[in-house]
Design brief:
Elements (H helix, E strand, L loop, with lengths): L32 E3 L2 E3 L6 E5 L6 E6 L3 H21 L2 H17 L1 H12 L3 H21 L7 E3 L6 E8 L2 E5 L7 H13 L2 E5 L5 H13 L7 E3 L5 H4 L1 H4 L3 E7 L2 H11 L5 E5 L4 E5 L5 H13 L9 E7 L3 H12 L20 H16 L3 E4 L15 E4 L6 H4 L6 E7 L2 H8 L7 E5 L3 H10 L4 E4 L18 E2 L12 E8 L5
Parallel strand pairs: 7-8, 7-10, 8-9, 10-11, 12-13, 12-17, 13-16, 15-16, 17-18
Antiparallel strand pairs: 1-2, 3-4, 5-6, 6-20, 11-19, 14-15
Helix pairs in contact: 2-4, 2-5, 2-6, 3-4, 3-6, 4-5, 10-11
The protein binds succinic acid.
Succinic acid binds next to loops.
């Protein structure tokens, strides 16, 4: 769909207007990496192009680092971590985080512009993501000073036990393109709060948001030997984060396949891991649900970021008695969505991230239609848009044998399955190896408690499609991963508990 051929027939990639010209603070656009304490270009000036998914134009050439840059950054951040932990009080680290939060919010327009251009999401959503990203920094600036240990009655005579919480050390942070800002802050704000240092491998699709956030973190007072940002297209190079013995923790958001591979490599040196992996979220509408609430929730939950979130509803399970009414109302609202370049103010939904993402949605749609699904809206690549677009699509009559029942589409396809009993809905909902998020809609309080207990997932939305927030533990079970981000539990992922037993207290 997108090619790099110019109108005069040459095959030079076409470039976007320089992004820095679109910013109030041009310095926020940075194509170098922050490696071993300095902004640097890669050796031999190696770069990779970063594209605008809405047009295929090149936004910039990002520095492309090798394994050595990871190893050097890990060494630098290893020294930095000792300093950060031993010379900064929790209150000082909290102050730095608070300043970083404030500067992210002050620069929301520029950050959202960079994010929308490289990710494609609508500018309103991009602004929302920046606020969401900042909320983790604020949250952990507050959690930072409330990291308490225990005082435990000892079973030995004349003894006492206390515990303290210590930072794990250097953390390897590998983040996804679907939330170029929030997935970085959700990981590194608790790491800093705990007193850890971080070496970040940003996504190669969206490295410029990560660079802008790093600039603001440094300006807010994060020491230059406590953070490194190492962009690369070379997956082997970034695996240094999973095998280097000086790295004590890996935090990754992405596919289950890559999460398993990283976990297995990290086990070589028994690193702590947090893995936020794939999902296949059920969205269950019972016969007693308020359908207006359920339809509005489906729009947010299914089509947020054009369907590219791990917690997006993947399967809409609707009771047979309300399925027609629900589907009609959903289709009527989907009709009003405005596809376009994220950066345009009237766009409600932007493109997908790349050609492979569009191909996957198309494959799921074709498979569902071949197996008896009925197309209610969408079902094609839109005319007149050159980027990686796919129309928001609703299919009714979805069944268990369809690909979309088993595999996360990660795109704007809402397949509607029918059920007739609560047990059937639960069996369908839990028929997956994943367990990230689930949603259901009902007015019956007993059912709320029963179904919330029975759904095998880490996060549940009842009568809402929006569950993500700094205060709420984010994470899954089963093949959706391990660990919790955000919330009062997020800090512990970056800490070790030390138990100290003191004997011979009574002389
Ligand atoms: C994700 O898709 O990985 C994160 C979504 C969220 O934080 O809501």
């Amino acid at each position: 769909m997108i090619d790099s051929t110019t109108t005069n027939g040459s095959s030079q990639p076409r470039h976007h207007t320089p992004v820095s010209e679109l910013l109030k603070n041009a310095g926020l656009f940075e194509a170098r990496g922050f490696v071993a304490g300095k902004w640097r270009t890669a050796s031999n000036n190696a770069t990779f192009p970063v594209y605008e998914p809405a047009t295929g134009l090149v936004l910039g050439e990002c520095a492309n680092f090798s394994k050595d840059a990871f190893a050097n950054s890990i060494d630098t951040c290893h020294d930095g971590y000792q300093e950060f932990w031993s010379q900064f009080t929790a209150k000082e680290r909290a102050k730095i985080l608070r300043r970083w939060n404030d500067s992210i919010l002050e620069n929301v327009d520029d950050l959202a512009t960079i994010l929308s251009l490289e990710n494609g999401k609508a500018i309103s959503e991009a602004r929302g993501e920046i606020a969401y990203a900042a909320s983790f920094v604020q949250w952990f600036s507050e959690e930072c000073t409330r990291s308490y240990g225990d005082n435990i009655p000892s079973s030995y005579p004349s003894s006492m036990v206390f515990t303290s919480k210590e930072p794990v050390g250097v953390c390897g942070i590998i983040t996804p393109w679907n939330f170029p800002a929030a997935m970085i802050t959700r990981k590194i704000a608790p790491a800093f709060a705990a007193g850890c240092s971080v070496v970040i491998k940003p996504p190669s699709e969206t490295p410029f948001t990560a660079a802008a956030l790093t600039k603001l973190a440094l300006a807010a007072g994060v020491p230059d030997n406590v953070i490194a940002l190492v962009p690369t297209k070379d997956r082997e190079a970034s695996l240094e984060l999973a095998i280097n013995p000086k790295v004590k923790k890996i935090s990754f958001t992405g596919s289950t396949a890559v999460g398993k591979m990283l976990t297995s490599l990290a086990s070589g040196t028994m690193k702590k891991v947090s893995m936020e992996l794939g999902g296949n979220a059920p969205f269950v509408v019972f016969e007693d649900a308020d359908l207006d609430i359920a339809v509005d929730a489906a729009l947010v939950c299914k089509f947020r970021s054009s369907g590219q979130t791990c917690v997006c509803a993947n399967r809409l399970l609707v009771h047979e008695s309300v399925v027609d009414a629900f589907s009609e109302r959903l289709v009527a609202k989907v009709k009003k969505m405005q596809l376009g370049k994220g950066i345009n103010a009237n766009t409600t939904h932007g493109p997908l991230v790349n050609a492979a993402a569009v191909d996957k949605v198309e494959r799921h749609v074709q498979d569902a239609l071949k197996k008896g699904g009925q197309l209610r809206i969408g079902g094609r690549r839109p005319e007149g848009l050159t980027g990686y677009f796919y129309e928001p699509t609703v299919i009714t009559g979805a069944t268990k044998d369809m690909e979309v029942a088993k595999d996360e589409t990660f795109g704007p396809l809402a397949p509607i399955f029918e059920f007739s009993t609560e047990q059937e809905a639960l069996d369908l909902a839990n028929d997956t190896e994943f367990g990230l998020a689930g949603y259901f809609f009902t007015k019956d309080i007993s059912r709320v408690l029963r179904v919330a207990g029975a759904l095998q997932v880490g996060m549940i939305g009842v009568n809402t499609g929006l569950i993500s927030a700094a205060e709420t533990p984010f994470g899954g079970i089963n093949e959706s991963g391990v660990g919790r981000e955000g919330s009062k539990y997020g800090l512990a992922e970056y800490q070790n508990i030390k138990a100290v037993t003191i004997g011979a207290i009574k002389a």
